[in-house]
Structure formats: C-alpha cells, structure tokens
Amino acid sequence: MLARIGYRGAALLFFALVCAVYCYSLADAPRPLTESWAWAERVAPLDVWAAAWGAAGAVCVVTAFLVRDGIGFFAMMLVSLFWGVLALTGFLWGGVDRGYLTAAVFLGLSGFVYVIGAGLKGKTLGGDR
User: Fold this and answer.
1) pLDDT 10s digit of each residue in the chain, 129 long?
2) Would the pTM of this model clear 0.85, i.e. be above it?
3) What b/e sequence results for 77-97 when a residue is b if at least 16 CB atoms lie within 10 Å of its CB, and e otherwise?
4) In the chain, where are the structural domains located?
5) Which residue from 32, 47, 107, 128 has the fewest beta carbons nearer than 10 Å?
C-alpha cells in the first residue's frame, strides 16, 4: 500500500528531519549540560530521549510512503508532547528558567501535528478560503 508522497508525506519527512536533529543533539550532548537537558536527564538518560526522538523519526520516514500514515503523525505528536510536558514540569518544579519557552514550542508543535495529521483529516474550518 505505497502512496506517492503528497503534502502529508512531505510533512512527515520534515518531522523526521526535526527528530533526527534532536536525536543527534541529545546523543552527542556537550557537557556540562544546560539546565533544561540536566532536567531531562534527571527524568531519563539522554540516550533514552535520543532513542525516542530517533524512533519517532524512523516511523515518520517509513509512513511518509504509506497510504495509512496516521501512525507517523501520532509518533511525532507523542514525542513532541512528552518533550513539551517535560519542559513545562522543568519550568514549574525543576528550576529550569526558560522551560516555558520550550514547552510552548513543543506543545504547540504537538497540537499542530495533531491538526494536520489526524484531528482534521478531510475536514474544513469555515468552508473554502
């Protein structure tokens, strides 16, 4: 059930690129860690976070070529949601000074992925524009 890459497939390949960059940056994190990554490492080793980003990216690449591509959007939504919640908890309880900024970016990304990937598939808002 292969499909030609359309807009959804292209979006998944873009998300895969974002995942690959984050995976690499976490796997090769410079020491000493920034306060946000030190917080992330308190929750789970950075290699685990790198593996999560890498796995999400791999799923995005594979599903970009499939007709049923929803799992790719779900993987990206999930990893960005976890990263956003991690940043928010770091800001609220972990002393991460600008964690709210990372939280806003990644929670917003997670919502955006939901909207374009699964939430409004085939639906329109307010008719044609």
Assistant:
1) 566 788 889 999 999 999 999 999 999 999 999 999 999 999 999 999 999 999 999 999 999 999 889 999 999 999 999 999 999 999 999 989 999 999 999 999 999 999 888 655 555 445 444
2) yes
3) bebbbbbbebbbebbeebebe
4) 7-119
5) 128
